[in-house]
Write a structure and sequence with these properties.
heterodimer, A: 314 residues, alpha/beta, eight-stranded mixed beta sheet, globular, B: 392 residues, seven-stranded mixed beta sheet, 13 helices, 19% strand
């Protein structure tokens, strides 16, 4: 097996209070490896509020600011404005928010941050439900998934709505860079982090964060669940730079989505017909992504925009 | 010093300029709008070198300055009415994080029904958030109080955010001559903010965090102790300001002709000016009336109110908001402050000027006459001429 080539530095320490097998913990660890110590992270109410450990301790080797759940986009604009005003130019500013704090209650502040071209990286670590409060459905919970508020009992069979496409929403703001990242593919992950770090302007990461507690799988299977998510096309890995799509992992043929669904208790109730519906949706999304990749090579979106927005503004 | 003709809103913007604020964020709302416009103008013309972050809501505006202040920048924002109410979560956050933000608030009524008139409901609903609150009477006082607010907010004994409020339209859009101190004078009075000690890029630190019951109360107690230190610190700041500019606004509760008064009316904001002329007129007619202004509402100036209560038998308190307590917000607080005193004057709570209704000399005179009659009710709506049932 080839040796992993990851940055050696560790800026997230043992003693954190994540659940065993937490994908969100891996996401932070890998992110900070790539970004380095001169990083300020703003974290809203989410699992990471708790994972970082209570006052007066911290599990992070960088400066961390807490902010209310819906305000991460605004918080990173404020941090960047202060650093600019104080003449500190070498700091990476990161918002690190959950899927609920991003796609639901925080979408307004995120949109504002992208529109005003804040020079920062916004991360949505996606565990596909409100996990810190105990597994309630969010806009990022996928079709069919069990949560405590999309129960599987009586006439209910899990979530009946599809997952919100945050990458599409973010891309409508023409960020300088947007990418999907998955801790199960750490080298792809680090390449994207290092690439984004070198850029100026609004950047967005959608990080897949399997949650053994909420998704109902054995804590030692996190990496396997993450890998199969990408290889079935459920969570494709791609990046969009200056409007150009680039799929960063292609395996030839997608594995049956059933392999991903069967690995988790939250999909246990799905019937073959349900699974076929999910399969159809995943395939369609994958085909659309391939199409975006082909078309954006010829006509990337920003080139068509009437005025190209400035790369960054505080 | 330069004498300029300024609206209250322009006075806010010029004070922010003189304070050399580093980060500003705001969202427009009537009647605060001309503050954000004036600041945009000051930044665009290079008169103010600051990061001006234009946001998509008041909630984000306050979050931007909370985060910028947490990083160590001097920050300013301004809002009004519904904007302040949308900020509410962050209003609490700012004091808990000990961010020395200064916020101008143009006091405006809360809907429905929509009304842009002057009313203190917006800031009264934020009175328990851990912010220091000043209510200004004139545009000069707006200018001076904003500058004092930065010094007070950033003082190591305090480290709390401050609201400087002004009555909608009576101040926000009314022009008055204002003595604007020179930049060198302000620079001496208000040096740059000391570097923040907590969040330093490159170090492991956390601002916010979480605690259990074992530690949370300690943080609250620290805020309470800082609040208790405000009166003494304000005294110091006002003296320093007087040395720098020659002006002093009389502390938390400036009084007017209260010696030997049979009745004293306590007012907030612009109705004070009207009441002062009525006091002169009634004194000339041999009626012993006096006036006190609640310039500082948070922390509540208990000592000053008790000292005032010791010298008078009848007190009236004019509230420009309705707050569903036993009396208006200020009247309730005045009563509570007086309760432990051995000499407790009779207190009447007047509602006057709700939703921008003018508090005319006639209305003020009626309040004094009611107090002097010795038969003033516990509470009275001065804006309502006669009782009208909503059912018709």
């Amino acid at each position: 097996m080839a040796k992993l080539t990851l940055p050696a530095q560790e800026l997230m320490f043992s003693g954190h209070s994540a659940c065993p097998g937490c994908g969100a913990a891996l996401a932070m660890r890998l992110l900070l490896k790539g970004l380095g110590p001169r990083t300020v992270v703003s974290v809203p109410a989410c699992c990471w509020t708790v994972i970082a450990t209570p006052y007066p301790t911290t599990a992070l080797g960088v400066a961390m600011m807490d902010n209310p759940i819906e305000a991460t986009g605004a918080s990173i604009s404020g941090i960047r404005a202060a650093l600019d005003a104080m003449g500190q130019k070498d700091v990476t500013v990161v918002g690190f928010a959950g899927d609920g704090g991003t796609a639901d209650i925080g979408i307004q502040a995120l949109s504002g941050m992208l529109e005003r071209r804040t020079n920062a990286i916004y991360v949505m670590y996606d565990n596909e439900a409100y996990m810190n409060t105990g597994v309630q459905r969010s806009g990022e919970t996928p079709l069919g998934a069990w949560t405590t508020t999309t129960p599987v009992e009586g006439h209910e069979h899990g979530k009946i709505e599809a997952k919100k496409d945050m990458m599409a929403i973010v891309l409508a703001h023409h960020p300088v860079y947007a990418a999907t990242l998955n801790p199960s593919f750490p080298e792809d992950f680090e390449r994207k982090v290092e690439k984004a770090k070198a850029m100026t302007g609004p950047r967005f990461f959608h990080i897949f964060a399997p949650c053994s507690t909420g998704w109902r799988f054995d804590a030692q299977k996190t990496i396997a669940v993450g890998r199969i998510a990408t290889d079935t096309g459920v969570f494709p890995l791609y990046e969009v730079e200056e409007g150009r799509f680039h799929i960063t992992r292609k395996t030839g043929t997608l594995k049956p989505v059933e392999e991903y669904l069967h690995a988790q208790g939250r999909f246990r109730h799905l019937t073959p017909a349900n699974i076929a519906a999910v399969e159809a949706q995943v395939r369609a999304s994958w085909e659309r992504l391939l199409q975006y990749e082909r078309e954006s090579l010829i006509a990337p979106t920003p080139a068509e925009a009437p005025t190209k927005p400035p790369a960054t503004r505080a | 010093m330069t004498r300029m003709v300024l609206s209250g809103n322009s006075a806010q913007a010029h004070a922010a300029r003189l304070a050399r604020v580093q980060v500003i964020s705001a969202y427009p709302i009537t009647p605060q709008t001309s503050i954000v416009e004036k600041i945009a103008d000051l930044v665009a013309t290079g008169q103010l070198k600051a990061e001006y972050v234009q946001v998509e809501s008041e909630h984000s505006a306050l979050q931007v300055v909370v985060s910028a202040s947490g990083m160590g920048a001097r920050t300013y924002t301004a809002t009004s009415s519904h904007g302040l109410l949308l900020m509410h979560e962050l209003v609490h956050w700012a004091s808990g994080a000990r961010d020395p933000i200064v916020m101008g608030v143009v006091n405006r009524a809360v809907g429905p029904p929509w009304n842009i008139g002057s009313d203190h409901t917006d800031t009264m609903s934020q009175r328990d958030t851990g912010w220091i609150q000043f209510y200004a009477e004139s545009n000069q006082e707006v200018m001076d109080t904003v500058l004092q607010a930065f010094r007070l907010a950033e003082h190591p004994d305090v480290r709390l955010p401050v609201m400087v409020t002004e009555d909608a339209f009576y101040l926000s859009h009314t022009l008055e001559p204002v003595d604007v101190p020179d930049q060198e004078v302000v620079d001496k009075f208000l040096p740059p903010r000391e570097p923040h000690a907590i969040l330093v890029p490159g170090t492991a630190a956390r601002l916010g965090s979480f605690t259990g019951p074992d530690r949370y109360v300690d943080f609250r107690f620290e805020v309470a102790k800082a609040m208790e230190r405000v009166p003494a610190t304000l005294r110091f700041v006002e003296e320093e300001y007087q040395k720098a500019t020659g002006r002093h606004h009389g502390g938390p509760v400036p009084t007017y002709r209260v010696d030997d008064a049979d009745a004293v009316l306590i007012t907030m904001g612009t109705s004070t000016t009207t009441a002062r002329t009525v006091v002169d007129e009634m004194r000339a007619a041999g009626k012993k009336v006096g006036l006190a202004k609640l310039r500082l509402f948070r922390p509540f100036p208990n000592e000053e109110i008790r000292a005032l209560g010791a010298t008078v038998d009848r007190l009236g308190v004019a509230d420009r908001s309705y707050t569903f307590g036993p009396m208006g917000a200020a009247a309730t607080e005045v009563s509570a402050a007086l309760y432990p005193s051995s000499h407790r004057p009779a207190v009447t709570g007047f509602y006057a000027g709700i939703g921008g209704r003018d508090v005319t000399p006639h209305v003020v005179r009626r309040m004094y006459e009611s107090l002097l009659s010795g038969a003033a009710p516990e509470v009275h709506w001065e804006d309502i001429e006669e009782e009208v049932s909503v059912d018709g």
